[in-house]
Amino acid sequence: MADSNITKRALASALKELMESTPFTKITVSDICAKCNMNRKSFYYHFKDKFDLVNWIFDVEYLSHIQLGVDLIGWDSVLHLCDYFYKNKDFYRKVMKVEDQNSFANHFRDIVGPVMAEDIKEILGEQTNTEFYVTFWNDAIICSLGRWISDRNPVPPKEFVRLLQSCIKVVVKTHERLEG
């Protein structure tokens, strides 16, 4: 197990180093392997493709430090996530631009979606078309995170979260205005 993690970390480090000068879309598995003196067989023993490696990086660096369903609730958790993206903005601004069936954006949707679905069912009831709401909010979150982190000088995480909170307030106020 320890050797497996050493290999995975070496591959992750190689990818991050390559991404400092090369766009993610131009990096190949061969490039990653050459950077850390491994063969492609070693890479494919651990990962399906380079997207799987990116997802593993997020899972190990961020998700492994939180408890799903517990820590992913409330604005403190949003700030925690934004702090992570901000600290790793050079990496994620490149990764979040890539849309592919195995992309990080899809991985993120798969993680956040079930938590969001539970919240939506609790708020709107079991008979709600939960999938529509999860898709809508996932797209909004991923798009706003991607735009924020891709900005040349993104605002600090606390300010970004404050802006997100104000967006929610606008939605609530608009709803109240339309209903009243």
Describe this structure in words.
With 180 residues, the chain is mainly α. The protein contains 9 helices and no strands. The chain has helices at 2-19, 29-35, 40-46, 50-61, 75-87, 89-95, 104-124, 130-150, 157-179. Helix 5 packs across helix 9 (157-179), helix 6 (89-95) packs across helix 8 (130-150) and helix 7 (104-124) packs across helix 8.
Helix fraction bin: over 70%
Order of helices and strands: HHHHHHHHH
Number of helices: 9
Taking all Cα atoms into account, the compactness measure Rg is 19 Å
| Average pLDDT score | 89
Q: Tell me the span between the first and last alpha carbons.
A: 60 Å
* Largest sheet: number of strands, sense, barrel closure: none
Shape: elongated
Low-pLDDT segments:
none
Number of strands: 0
Which band does the percent of strand residues land in?
A: under 5%
- Subunit organisation of the chains: single chain
Keywords for this entry:
180 residues, single chain, 0% strand, 9 helices, mainly alpha, elongated
Brief summary:
With 180 residues, the chain is mainly α.
